Amino acid sequence: MLLIAFLILFVVGAIGSGGAALAWLAGVALFGMVAGGLTYLSLALTLRCESCDKRLFIEGAESRYPKATKIKGFDYWASAVIEVIRSQRLTCMHCGQRYALSATALSDKKP
After folding, report:
1. Which domain holds residue 106?
2. Which of 19, 39, 61, 101 could form a disulfide with 88 if both were Cys (CB 3.0 to 4.6 A apart)?
3. Residues 24 and 76 reside in one and the same domain
4. Which of 92, 94, 86, 85 is nearest to 109 (CA)?
5. If we measure between CA atoms, which residue out of 61, 62, 59 comes closest to residue 70?
6. Global confidence as pTM
7. 91 with 80: CB under 8 angstroms?
């Protein structure tokens, strides 16, 4: 969404007379997009499942756990990210280990 915001602000600023204000907003959107991407990349490369030792946010070619979180229209890694944002919990797509990221989420027990 930040990429779309950047492109819209950039094009409108280049065509219209918005000038410095739109250029500043486009820069903020671009910075947010790069910062978000770097944050995701650093977490995706470092976070591993305690049970199977595979990366939690990187989807490989190997088989998935049958009950892994899968949102229609998204890959398993995108579904895992959305699950973390929406419900503060995570299910490993490789082995099914469940993690609670808050005191009110599910327990850390394997299903």
Report:
1. 52-111
2. 101
3. no
4. 92
5. 59
6. 0.60
7. yes
- Reference 64, options 86, 93, 84, 107; nearest CA is 93
Residue 19's CB is within 10 A of a number of other CB atoms, namely 9
CA gap 62, 60 in Å, rounded:
6
Rounded to whole angstroms, how far apart are CA atoms 74 and 79? 6
Q: Are residue 31 and residue 56 in the same domain, yes or no?
A: no
Q: In this model, does residue 2 exceed pLDDT 50?
A: yes
Nearest to 93 by CA among 107, 80, 109, 83: 80
What does the DSSP assignment read for 22-78? HHHHHHHHHHHHHHHHHHHHHHHHH-B-TTT--BTT---SSPPPTT----TTS-HHH
CA end-to-end span of the chain, whole Å?
Answer: 34
pLDDT tens for residues 3-62? Answer: 787 777 777 776 766 666 777 777 788 888 889 889 988 988 998 989 889 888 888 777
Domains contained in the chain, number: 2
